[in-house]
Design a protein that fits this description.
- By secondary structure, this protein is of the alpha+beta class.
- Helix content is 39%, strand content 17%.
- It starts with a helix and ends in a 21-residue tail after the last strand.
- It has a single domain, classed as NADH Oxidase.
- Strands 1-2-4-3 form a four-stranded antiparallel sheet.
- Helix 1 crosses helix 4 and helix 2 packs across helix 4.
- The chain contains six helices and four strands.
- The chain binds flavin mononucleotide.
């Protein structure tokens, strides 16, 4: 797919089919993360955890629901794959967020180039980052923390390309 088309297919997908993505698709999405930039090239400060075990994702959704007091909330939206980003906790929040977003945007664009749905997950990570059970389930090494994630799956409804909206982000040219 042309890069411009992948950009137009990218959108937050919040409803998925049950079927799993293929291993080749997962690898292509992970490869996109490996091609992302991170500050000062400190790739050793990151870990990716690709979760395809439904029991783990169900448990995370349950823990989130309990924490926020609304058990109907399913913040991973039934996606069969979620790739979590872990970062060495020594860096400050600003650079951590910036690095994480570079990894995740590359993965989202790789997903949309495959006509797969994807959605950035920040909320569930922020709510669950200190939960011992989550640290265990995601095998988070000491010194690392959960900073973001991305859902991936076959969208419940086929993605439609979006057009560029003029003026969506106020911009000046100097
Ligand atoms: C840093 C960041 C964090 C986000 N966190 C969440 C999230 O936790 N849950 C969610 O459903 N969407 C999340 N989103 C998706 C945004 O809500 C979405 O990108 C925005 O509304 C624009 O819609 P679009 O992605 O369809 O273009 C996040 C996006 C970004 C960039």
């Amino acid at each position: 797919m042309e890069f411009k088309d992948a950009l137009k297919y990218r959108q937050s997908c919040r409803a998925y089919q049950e079927a799993q993505i293929t291993d080749a698709q997962l690898q292509e999405i992970l490869d996109a993360a490996y091609l992302a930039p991170v500050g000062m090239g400190k790739f050793e400060n990151f870990r990716l955890v690709a979760v395809q075990d439904k029991a783990v994702l169900d448990k995370m959704n349950d823990l989130f629901g309990n924490k926020v007091g609304d058990k109907s909330m399913r913040p991973t939206y039934g996606a069969p794959t979620v790739i979590f980003v872990l970062e060495n906790a020594e860096d400050d929040d600003l650079i951590t967020g910036a690095n994480c977003s570079c990894l995740i945007e590359n993965m989202m664009l790789a997903a949309s180039s495959l006509k797969l749905g994807a959605c950035y997950l920040f909320g569930i990570c922020r709510v669950l980052e200190k939960e011992a059970e989550v640290k265990k389930m995601l095998q988070i090494p000491d010194g690392f923390r959960l900073v973001g994630g991305v859902t991936v799956g076959i969208p419940a409804e086929e993605l439609q390309q979006r057009q560029v909206e003029d003026g969506k982000i106020q911009t000046i040219r100097i």
